[in-house]
């Protein structure tokens, strides 16, 4: 049985900040907001602790959003290397020794 936890959606907040940094226009924020609403995203996410910390959870649709031609016209986005694999985890890809 998997136990799920709820966390504040860090990546969504990062995308909002990127939208403001790119153009500082309400249009960019509106584009990001509409994209997330269409995908049913919320301010909180649900995943297992292992997914949040080590395994990562799927963020490929955010990479697709950040590659949007409209964002490129506005100056593009500096996509964090930590999500280029399409997964996000706080320690995803980091070797941890106990």
Can you describe this structure in just a few lines?
The chain is α+β, with helices and mostly antiparallel strands. The chain is built from five helices and four strands.
Description:
The strands form two sheets. Strands 1-2 form a two-stranded antiparallel ribbon. Helix 1 (10-23) packs antiparallel against helix 2 (26-38). With 98 residues, the chain is α+β, with helices and mostly antiparallel strands. The model has no long low-confidence stretch (mean pLDDT 76). It has helices at residues 10-23, 26-38, 49-55, 60-66, 69-73, and strands spanning 4-8, 44-48, 57-58, 87-88. 47% of the residues lie in helices and 14% in strands.
Task: Map the helices and strands.
Layout: E1 4-8, H1 10-23, H2 26-38, E2 44-48, H3 49-55, E3 57-58, H4 60-66, H5 69-73, E4 87-88
Antiparallel strand pairs: 1-2, 3-4
Number of separate helices: 5
Mean pLDDT: 76
- Unreliable spans: none
By DSSP, the count of extended strands is: 4
Distance between the termini: 25 Å
Structural class: alpha+beta
Largest sheet: 2 strands, antiparallel
Jot down its keywords:
two-stranded antiparallel sheet; 4 strands; 98 residues; alpha+beta
